Structure formats: structure tokens, C-alpha cells
TrEMBL record:
Keyword annotations of the record: ATP-binding, Nucleotide-binding, Signal
GO cellular component, one term: cytoplasm
Protein's name in the database: SelD protein
Lineage: Eukaryota, Sar, Alveolata, Dinophyceae, Suessiales
Species: Symbiodinium natans
PANTHER family given in the database record: INACTIVE SELENIDE, WATER DIKINASE-LIKE PROTEIN-RELATED (PTHR10256:SF0), SELENIDE, WATER DIKINASE (PTHR10256)
Source organism, top-level taxon: Eukaryota
GO terms, molecular function: ATP binding; selenide, water dikinase activity
Gene3D superfamilies: PurM-like, N-terminal domain (3.30.1330.10)
């Protein structure tokens, strides 16, 4: 009868909580995680069915290309990434696909955890489109599918940019966009577009005179003009049919879009030659560094490096750890603005980043935002590059540095941040760029006059310095290692670290959710000292839905007392914090009542997303739990709170019972190793 009354009381507590929720207005910041509408449907409402169809055509392709990086990024409770991680993933996507550096997606010093990827859309897209993606990122994050939708939308946006520029060329060529043109006209339009926009200024109009000037200067300003012409002709034959004599505007737009996608591979052939020549000039083999004098003074190649020191410094391409012996950092130089062309207002085409390919393998091996130093060392030692073999032995120095990074992060190494990028540069000095700290690195979109030739006197000065140092045999390099972290998504990483341990909070919680077969395996590891074994006896309740233990004290301690305990917590089922706290507390108390015991004290257990909900919400949840426990005469003596991806609340509850009053149970003895489990 007493047990029935207590169960009725628990039911009443739940009913009161539900009634309170129905009467009160739900807060604007919902406690429960709300599932958003399908993003494609919302995109169709904003831009129309045509745009949705265009995005759908690319979705599977983009999902496949994003999958590895996405899996390794920190995610929230709905398996979605926040804006900084989305930005990073999209940067990786377009760089690996086409060698594109998207304006607004670049990761640079001081901007690891910066703008939303929607920034890359600029002001030339409908405001409602920007708002749609910003709201999705800010409120929910993006799943792999949703991130692929954003990528497809951006790709469509780049094609629209091609169309706008093509209209400028049509107008300058006195052609109408609705007309069909013959082969020779199409060839002239295509080549005019390439000449005007690959190396020319980003303009909104062209005159006939400017077109002729662009064509005249293109061959001198773009050394690979012959290869570019061949590539353009091949794509034209592929899209329009070999030597077709009728081309419409849409066909030329498709040809030029494909040209932009494939130009990166053409540029990269030149980059590989450049890298080989630079590595032959290294001040010490394998260092990835070239003395500035050697950079300027070597005449054995068919081209020369002439960028000024001011430009090299501003673009983050110099190692000046020894101010008297400045050196060019090879991977930084290859990725620098002077080795990029800008055929679009949205992106530059630069050398393919070989380090991105290495990172792809690291992410694939870890499938997580972080890894142990041992796991990472094992992975990286097996990864070959264009200048280093697979299965090499990494130096003790690299192990020491990686341990130092892990020590900075509680024993794990986050792979999406400055310190790991710095470590990868140490491991692959010819392939991975050095991540400068607190330096305003010049953008690949900033084509300033400082990129012009070095002055003859300055060139001679550095050449003399290099010769003197070479003669002295001085090849030492001062360490550039700086123990300063900048993470791509700091909040996401910290939440991932804290939530990864949330299942290890208490032994009772573990026992509460496993079956008896599992308990039999884990019981030996949970045995208390032998001195306690003789005085305790553990019983696990038969009903699997009640996560409760009953501890009957040995007769030498007390013959008429058993200790009943439980732990229970869950995510919100209502939006009112106080009501949620009360329901969770009543639920935990009910488990002890159900075993015929009287709860006397409890401990709070809380998971809370402090990056999404204000502290006042947590205070209200705890208040609700406190009030329900007070009604039952139960004291809350403390508890534990961890950062989590979504709110969780409950109690660990302890109470005494008469052994004869406890419900029938399965008895399990915690005994010395010589005994067998009952």
C-alpha cells in the first residue's frame, strides 16, 4: 500500500509538470533541440524550383568529397558542424577539387575561428539566401547533407559569375547574348574572356580598346598561354561538339565554367616544376628553406624569382627567425599570391596544396577531431609525399613536439588548428606551409604593386649575404616553433572533448544501462577491496526498466538495513527549465520508491551546452529539481556538471530500506577472485 501511494505521488509530480508546461509560455530559446525544416525545401521557397534542381544535381558528388573531412570535425547533438568548421570544410573542398582559394574561406593568421562561410557569397546574392544559410548555421549547424547543399549553391553562384563576365565580353564584342554565333566568333569570345579576366583587372565593363589591349598583353603576362589555349579548345570540342558551327550563350558559359575548374591542374604542372627548382636551392637539404640571396641570384633556370622582400614578408613567405639570414619558405611561397591567377571575383586559382592531401589521410585515419600522439605518429610515418617516402621513421624531435601539443590539450592533439599545422610543417617542410602567428598575411586577392621586381641593389645585397654564409658553412636555422594555439572551431572542440567522457561519470550509471551478461564481464573490474567484500552483498533489480542497485549490509554491520541507490538522467521532454528539472528529479526518486525504499539524499548530474544556452537556464533546471526533492524530504548534497552538446539532468539517489521490504531481486555477490559470480 505504501509503495502504491508513493508511485501515485510520482505520477502526480509528472502530471503537475505537464500541466505547468501547458499553462506557461515557452521561452524563445527552446530547451529542447528543435529539428529544422528540410534545407532544400527552404531553398526552393527562397530561390525557386530551378535553383533547387541545380543543387540536387551536385549533391551526391559534394557529399562524397566532403565526407572524410566532415567526419573528423567536431559536431553537435544533431551531428552537425558549426560555422567555423563548415567554413574550413568548404575551403578544403574547393581547394582539393580545383585548386581554388575561395575569398572568405581562407584560413590565415588570426582567422582560424572567424567568419561564417556565407561571407564567401559576397553581396551579389539575394539577402534571403544569405539569411537562410546563416540561420541554419547559427541555430542548428549543418549536417553533411546540408553542407553539400551549401557547397552546391556556391558552385552554382560561381557559374552565375561566369555568365555575368561573359555578358561583358559579348557586349564589348558587339554580340547579342540571345544569338547563335559561329565557330570563329565563339573562339574569339572564349579567348577574349580568358585574356581579359585571368590576368586582367576585375571589371564590370570592357571597351573594345580594352579588349584589344588585354589580348595584346596576355601572352607576355601569362607564360602558359599556349597550354591554356589548347585546354580551352579541347573543352569547347567536348561540350559543343568538334568544330561545331553554332554556339549559344549557355554553351559558352559551360565551356568557361569547365575551363575554370580545370585551369588549376594546368597551373599545378608549373607549380611542380617550380617546387623542384626551389628545393634544389635549399640552404640545407630537406629544410624547405631557400636563402633570399639564392632565391634572387641563381641564373641556371629559364625563369627568375623577382618578388620584393616587402612583398614576401607581407605575404607570409619569409622565415626571419634569423634576421641576418632571411629565407623563403618553399610551401608558403608556392601558395603565395604571385603564383595565383584570379579568373573570378569569388576565387583565385593557385598551386594545389599537397598538405591538404596529407591532411585528408590523417582525417581518414582518425575519424575524429583529435588523436593521441602515438596514433598520429603512426599515421604520419606511413604517409608519403612528393619528396618523402612512406613508412619513414619520424625523429624524436617530432615526437617531443607532438607530446607538447597534446600536453596543451589534456593528452590529445586537435588536428584542426595552428599547432598541428605547425607540426605538419615540421614533418613535411617542403609540402606544408608554416602557419604564421599574429601576422597580417597578404591575401591571395591583394595584387598590389609591392609584388613587382626587387630592386637591383637589394637583390645584390642578399646575394652577397648568401655567398658569405655558404662559404662559412653556416647552415643552422633558428626554431620557428611557437606554442600558441588557434583552433578552427574552439567551442566545438571543447564540447567534443567534454562530451566524450560523459558516459564515464559514475559506476551506477554504467550498471543501470547494461544487461546482466555485460555485468558478469565487468564485475571483476568493479570489485571493492577484500575487506569490504565480507561485509557487502549486491543485488541488481530484476525489472530491466528500473536502473537500481540494492546493497544489503552484512549482519556484522546491520541486519535490518539495505541501501538502495540509482542514477537516472535524460534530455528535455518539455521546454520549461523548472518543469524539466522537476520531472527528471521525480523520475529518479521514483526508482528508489519502486524498490520499497525511502530516498534520503541525492546528487545532481548535469550536462549543459553553455555555448548555446545562458547560465540562467541551468539555474532554473536545478531549481526545479531542488523543489521536487524538497517536497519529498530529500536533500541534494552536491553533484557534478559537464559541458555537453544538449541539456541533460537527473539525480543519483540513495535511500535505506528494510531488507524484507525490498522487492524481489537477482542477487550478485562481489567476492574474491576465487569465488564465482552467482
Amino acid at each position: 500500500m505504501k509503495l502504491a501511494c508513493r508511485c501515485a505521488l510520482v505520477a502526480l509530480l509528472f502530471a503537475q509538470g505537464g500541466h505547468a508546461f501547458r499553462r506557461k509560455k515557452v521561452e524563445k530559446t527552446s530547451l529542447r533541440r528543435q529539428e529544422p525544416k528540410a534545407l532544400l525545401e527552404e531553398l526552393e521557397q527562397v530561390l525557386g524550383a530551378e535553383h533547387r534542381e541545380a543543387a540536387e544535381q551536385r549533391l551526391h558528388e559534394f557529399e562524397d568529397d566532403l565526407r572524410i573531412t566532415f567526419k573528423a570535425l567536431p559536431k553537435n547533438g544533431r551531428g552537425a558542424v558549426a560555422a567555423p568548421s563548415a567554413r574550413y570544410a568548404l575551403h578544403r573542398l574547393f581547394n582539393q577539387r580545383h585548386g581554388w582559394q575561395i575569398k572568405g574561406l581562407e584560413t590565415a593568421a588570426g582567422a582560424w575561428d572567424a567568419d561564417s562561410p556565407v561571407t564567401a557569397m559576397g553581396d551579389r546574392v539575394p539577402p534571403k539566401m544569405r539569411e537562410l544559410f546563416e540561420d541554419r548555421l547559427g541555430s542548428y549547424g549543418m549536417t553533411l547533407h546540408e553542407l553539400a547543399i551549401l557547397a552546391a549553391t556556391m558552385d552554382k553562384m560561381f557559374e552565375t559569375d561566369v555568365a555575368e563576365r561573359l555578358r561583358i565580353v559579348y557586349k564589348a564584342s558587339a554580340l547579342k547574348t540571345e544569338a547563335h554565333i559561329n565557330y570563329n566568333q565563339a573562339k574569339n569570345v572564349l579567348w577574349t574572356y580568358v585574356a581579359a579576366f585571368i590576368t586582367g583587372p576585375q571589371v564590370e565593363s570592357l571597351t573594345e580598346g580594352e579588349v584589344h589591349k588585354a589580348l595584346d598583353h596576355f601572352e607576355t603576362r601569362f607564360p602558359r598561354h599556349a597550354e591554356a589555349r589548347d585546354l580551352l579548345a579541347a573543352i569547347a570540342d567536348e561540350v559543343g561538339g568538334r568544330r561545331s558551327n553554332s554556339y549559344d550563350f549557355a554553351t559558352l558559359q559551360t565551356i568557361l565554367s569547365k575551363f575554370g575548374q580545370r585551369l588549376g591542374a594546368l597551373e599545378d604542372t608549373e607549380c611542380k616544376v617550380m617546387k623542384n627548382r626551389l628545393t634544389s636551392l635549399e640552404h640545407r637539404e630537406g629544410s624547405g628553406l631557400v636563402r633570399l640571396g639564392d632565391f634572387y641570384g641563381n641564373d641556371k633556370f629559364d625563369f627568375h624569382f623577382t618578388e620584393s622582400p616587402v612583398y614576401l614578408r607581407g605575404a607570409g613567405l619569409l622565415d626571419e627567425s634569423n634576421p641576418n639570414d632571411p629565407k623563403v619558405i618553399i610551401p608558403n611561397y608556392l601558395a603565395g599570391p604571385s603564383n595565383c591567377v584570379q579568373p573570378s571575383g569569388y576565387y583565385s586559382i593557385c598551386c594545389f596544396d599537397e598538405c591538404e592531401q596529407l591532411m585528408d589521410k590523417v582525417e581518414e585515419g582518425l575519424e575524429a577531431p583529435m588523436g593521441t600522439p602515438e596514433k598520429i605518429m603512426d599515421l604520419v610515418s606511413g604517409l608519403p609525399s612528393s619528396s618523402l617516402p612512406a613508412n619513414r621513421t619520424l625523429s624524436p624531435h617530432l615526437k617531443t613536439l607532438l607530446d607538447e601539443v597534446a600536453g596543451h590539450h589534456g593528452g590529445m592533439v586537435p588536428i584542426h588548428g595552428r599547432l598541428f599545422a605547425q607540426w605538419m610543417h615540421e614533418a613535411y617542410p617542403r609540402e606544408c606551409s608554416y602557419p604564421h602567428l599574429e601576422v597580417k598575411v597578404q591575401s591571395r586577392f591583394d595584387h598590389s604593386t609591392e609584388m613587382d621586381h626587387v630592386e637591383a641593389a637589394e637583390k645584390s645585397k642578399y646575394w652577397q649575404i648568401a655567398k658569405q654564409l655558404e662559404g662559412s658553412g653556416e647552415n643552422q636555422t633558428t626554431s620557428r616553433w611557437i606554442m600558441k594555439e588557434e583552433l578552427v572551431d574552439r567551442q566545438g572542440f571543447e564540447a567534443h572533448v567534454k562530451s566524450s567522457t560523459r558516459d564515464d561519470l559514475t559506476i551506477f550509471g554504467a550498471l543501470g544501462f547494461v544487461g546482466m551478461a555485460v555485468v558478469r564481464h565487468i564485475a571483476p573490474a568493479l570489485r571493492p577491496p577484500a575487506a569490504v567484500d565480507s561485509q557487502t552483498r549486491m543485488c541488481i533489480s530484476r525489472p530491466s526498466s528500473v536502473q537500481v542497485f540494492v546493497l544489503k549490509l552484512d549482519e556484522t554491520v546491520s541486519d535490518d538495513i539495505a541501501i538502495v541507490g540509482t542514477l537516472d538522467f535524460f534530455t528535455p521532454i518539455v521546454d520549461e527549465p523548472e518543469v524539466f528539472g522537476g520531472i527528471a528529479a521525480a523520475n529518479a526518486l521514483s526508482d528508489v520508491y519502486a524498490m520499497g525504499a525511502r530516498p534520503i539524499f541525492a546528487l545532481n548530474i548535469v550536462g549543459f551546452p553553455s555555448n548555446r544556452l545562458p547560465p540562467s537556464v541551468l539555474a532554473r533546471i536545478l531549481k526545479g529539481g531542488q523543489e521536487k526533492c524538497a517536497e519529498a524530504g530529500v536533500a541534494i548534497l552536491g553533484g557534478h556538471t559537464v559541458e555537453d552538446l544538449e541539456p541533460k539532468y537527473g539525480l543519483a539517489v540513495i535511500g535505506p530500506s528494510e531488507p524484507s521490504g525490498a522487492l524481489k531481486s537477482i542477487e550478485m555477490h562481489l567476492c574474491p577472485p576465487t569465488c564465482e559470480l552467482a
